[in-house]
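Appendix B. Extra example for self-study. Work through it before the problem class; the solution is given directly after the inputs so you can check yourself.
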Amino acid sequence: MSGSVFGNRFKISTWGESHGEGIGVVVDGCPSGLFINEEYIQTYLNRRKPGQSEFSTPRKEADKVRILSGVFEGRTTGTPISLVVFNENQRSSDYSQIASYYRPGHADYTYDQKYGFRDYRGGGRSSGRETTGRVAAGAIAGAILKELGVAVYAYTKSIGPVSIDYQKCRKDLALKSPLVMPDLEASARAEEYILKQKAEENSVGGVIECIVTGMPAGIGEPVFDKLDAALAKAIMSIGAIKGVEIGDGFEVAKHTGFENNDSFFYDEDQNLTKLSNHSGGIVGGISDGFEIILRAAVKPTASIGRSQKTVNKSKENVDVQIGGRHDPIIVPRAVVVVESMVAITLVDYLFQGMTSRLDKIKEFYK
Amino acid sequence: MSGSVFGNRFKISTWGESHGEGIGVVVDGCPSGLFINEEYIQTYLNRRKPGQSEFSTPRKEADKVRILSGVFEGRTTGTPISLVVFNENQRSSDYSQIASYYRPGHADYTYDQKYGFRDYRGGGRSSGRETTGRVAAGAIAGAILKELGVAVYAYTKSIGPVSIDYQKCRKDLALKSPLVMPDLEASARAEEYILKQKAEENSVGGVIECIVTGMPAGIGEPVFDKLDAALAKAIMSIGAIKGVEIGDGFEVAKHTGFENNDSFFYDEDQNLTKLSNHSGGIVGGISDGFEIILRAAVKPTASIGRSQKTVNKSKENVDVQIGGRHDPIIVPRAVVVVESMVAITLVDYLFQGMTSRLDKIKEFYK
Amino acid sequence: MSGSVFGNRFKISTWGESHGEGIGVVVDGCPSGLFINEEYIQTYLNRRKPGQSEFSTPRKEADKVRILSGVFEGRTTGTPISLVVFNENQRSSDYSQIASYYRPGHADYTYDQKYGFRDYRGGGRSSGRETTGRVAAGAIAGAILKELGVAVYAYTKSIGPVSIDYQKCRKDLALKSPLVMPDLEASARAEEYILKQKAEENSVGGVIECIVTGMPAGIGEPVFDKLDAALAKAIMSIGAIKGVEIGDGFEVAKHTGFENNDSFFYDEDQNLTKLSNHSGGIVGGISDGFEIILRAAVKPTASIGRSQKTVNKSKENVDVQIGGRHDPIIVPRAVVVVESMVAITLVDYLFQGMTSRLDKIKEFYK
Amino acid sequence: MSGSVFGNRFKISTWGESHGEGIGVVVDGCPSGLFINEEYIQTYLNRRKPGQSEFSTPRKEADKVRILSGVFEGRTTGTPISLVVFNENQRSSDYSQIASYYRPGHADYTYDQKYGFRDYRGGGRSSGRETTGRVAAGAIAGAILKELGVAVYAYTKSIGPVSIDYQKCRKDLALKSPLVMPDLEASARAEEYILKQKAEENSVGGVIECIVTGMPAGIGEPVFDKLDAALAKAIMSIGAIKGVEIGDGFEVAKHTGFENNDSFFYDEDQNLTKLSNHSGGIVGGISDGFEIILRAAVKPTASIGRSQKTVNKSKENVDVQIGGRHDPIIVPRAVVVVESMVAITLVDYLFQGMTSRLDKIKEFYK
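Solution. Structure tokens for the complete assembly:
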């Protein structure tokens, strides 16, 4: 649990600081025979790349990925896949002053408490840039899921006061919204809200929703390794996330058992279905084969230009204004990070799921 | 990740079914020299024991714990501690009919999908009774935390429409409330609400809040093993939990960075403090030494007497009424389960935290 | 890595001291649908039970196993299987004096160094009695392997100066030898040797050889989790083992590449075979489908009646004679422990082996 | 256990193929504050670098290491350390023909069985080149051990028929021997032996011995995670190793308890010592504070020019001669790999060892 390794069968190990040589990930446990290349992985990285609209930092980062191992003649070999993105455009100068005080909302203080000192350049390892490795690995997990008929789709559900309804949104529209909000009217209102806060050198938060379709039933472990527990950890491990919900989430606290229970029934074609999906596709920690639905609360960007109170290393109370080029909101860029963490977790569990029944194991080795 | 083992340094392995021989846990990694005995562990188990008020099942279970290993002359020896609670009063007859259909809101269907069949007696391993092992291990973790000056305190924050304010509640009052709600006026209203739903053979949900005090700063791992991520998994692994929040949780989605950032400052005595604690005591996955605050959403009891639609094994749509003696609400009995999972997680992380700095490691081995 | 948990997919957690309440194991990750019962598991335990000949301690232990969870209507349910053997006949008096000094060859000193004190009754957790839990779990692993067509067979290869040749031995004869040595003439000579040493209040060591047949090719992980590396750890984790070999083992140091390489060839029926098996069925950490062969060196019983020099807690040099009823040799009783650890490891790896190829994973989930 | 990740607290993840882009390792769990740089790590890599004498392949590889993360202003920050060696001089042509048949003694066949196909260029991931990542990580572990006063020293104990005595060897002489054999007279005889075999296009094996001094007593876990068991796995995970011994190893099989037990005694200065060290510094899986001694059997290089029988993919029996530039012996280059694996394992266990006693944990957090 030393911190930067995730997963059991499908195991990823990330490394890299915001202003170091680069960011990377080693994927161990990827099966042989998966066709992947740098162009494909790049499509995932491009979704979290900054500088794509006025709603993200103007910082330009190519985030060009390179595959250093584990792929031979276009296919994975079953050995570790090392992916790296070398850093560019490191204006450390932007950050030098930060060494002297603790930025509110950032991990400067806790890192110093834990390690005795820190790489203060752009937050070092605690920077959102760390998620680059997650997304590169997420691209590989996504490719595996596609082969198994599982699709993971995340989008911006709410920003500040603007929220959309999952039933009403049209997934394809997410691409048309700079906020990845699949309801263009709502997206327009959210954009307005963000620009208003941005003008005041402030930032905003929001909620990301993620839907998984095509998940087989029976995946997940009882007790401690419940599928929803693993997803909660995976999502909560993303820097700015402060809350996670499965299905109806916190709403269940206000519901009665009769309202909350999902009834099964056979439709006219004798297919088993459910009259509702309050559980969000996971019951007793195990998938039921219906849509998995989860939400994550994303806090507003901690870095804001506006003056804030904090302390410096000379033990003085000071007012600071965080320089540098910041995202007025993290949510849109975090959507693909959520998708990636969900995909990585599902692959790990689908692999684990192969050993739950002796009859299937015998058939496999027959 | 086979499911029933939790933790890395402080590792617990639970076993047992609702109507099997018993329920137990093996605690591996408990340091030597901790004074514990059966009486002490029993005080934790008694808090989750049923039959203590009209708000829990009338089922009587002694839940008497026995220590089978790892303790010699009153102290832990450093070897695995095996704790067992033998089952009594198993009225399997109550459950026999359940074998034929899938109870809405229960894991009957998902277990069958995963394993091909299931121990249908009282939910078998998916029964809330599984938490007995967690609480027994939680008692040991709690004893270790006490030695380290860390206190974990959970209580019922809301039930249905009735919610209380953390600032206004008085911890000691929790003992006076059958709902473990430290605001007796609110508790009375909640009791009324539960009895009304119970009369309609229905059940209710709620929210549990947990506060950790005395936690050292610098505990938690960056990236995937963030302390809040681990707590989220620990809490979400409890059967009926559908959502987890740290600090302001989902509220952050509506806040701005200026509102959400916690400013540091030195008080007149030159002690470092914070002007707010929106982060809930964890930043960048690492504790900051202030109160850790988390909340868990508990769904209403799935077992209700009221008639519900579902399917049976003959592939028919049927109406069922769940017999047996159920809890109209799980929340009060789950409070100590939340405390236990938090305590177990914190011990694991405090042990891990000892190796983050070379200077401290050198001092330890000097 | 807290010490008493072994395995990844098929995970066992053992507990118990020599003179505590009992010894047990929790098996997590056993697939559903395996038929097992107490009688079957008992057959394994009986093989390590003492008091069966003049070559083991006269101590009588029933070692009666009980299944406390994970089995329903004769089949495993996929949930943790808790197995326990309650202790009887604990003549602690035999051991009380031991508290005052460190027995040569025993872990008394290292346990005190690690934990500050120890359960000195019969060695506590460091007693050979700890292996009871391994063997109970080994019985379950053995049952799974049988379903998959894999057989694990261990026997006594040498005792002191008496050694037998794998090619010449007849497996079935092992049952006829009180030393589990499948060459009765050699067994007779070994028995004589042991009795001679026993008469001088001394003890002897030996070598156990283990053969695995029916193992599929392609099982094992490259680099750190090589199948032979995992087997080496599993075997070396047995108390008295001081060396492990795979295939030709230490002999390879004296061989040339031309002698040591195993040539493949197709026989007249076009079946792939090998002209030799110096590798012992594992190459590059992965099984090649031929016999897996390994050997373990077992040290002589540390407890001997003969007078030995050591120190006591009053920091004095003293001469001691270990009282109690000891085994003049551990080897025969350890044979089933070796078989058990090999079986547990193979099951873990066969489960892991199901995820190495995408095409097979897709087929599984089709 | 997906294969390329090793360790628990001090966790390393290696990647890379013989003829891919490069070889690397990510070290997670290294404490903050350790001074390291590329020059220091290079000194370890240079010890396994080929082309340094007529006893290793003439293949020239710079093996220049680069630190990509985890180090800031010369010190480790506590975050993952990514180390990479980019490959050069990849004469894939040497290996193209290998794709068509299975080299005796190599993992070609087992990799194909496991993954369905393989990166056949120079053995891909199964190449000895994989150990580059282990040695780079070993350099970091070695630096940590030095800070803790622990020294790991390995050398060539035997080659073919030539063996040296640990008591007689002079460690410093190892540097003067091209075979890392600290007895120059024996080294000369071994060199002669190797050249004779090399002339016949053959290869030879040997034994590496490793001595650890300064190890604190009380390190290691009981039962499955015994320190010797972990070392056995670590060593056996090195490609060409076929056997591992601790202390007297296989010799114990021929000894009596009286001969094998190590007696404690207090010398005139009242220091606790032992009259012998047959146990090799580990008893009951826990270090006793005396020298740790282990040995590893290294098989002769599988690649030999001499003609050998094998099969090709057209299912024909063929005679092959392995082209390319091979090591006539692996032993000398493997010495630093053994040292590295031992160092990595010891660091992992020293970190684990910090949590065995409550009194010490309390002191740490005071």
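Self-check: The first strand of chain B starts at residue 5 and ends at 6. If your reasoning did not lead you there, revisit section 3.
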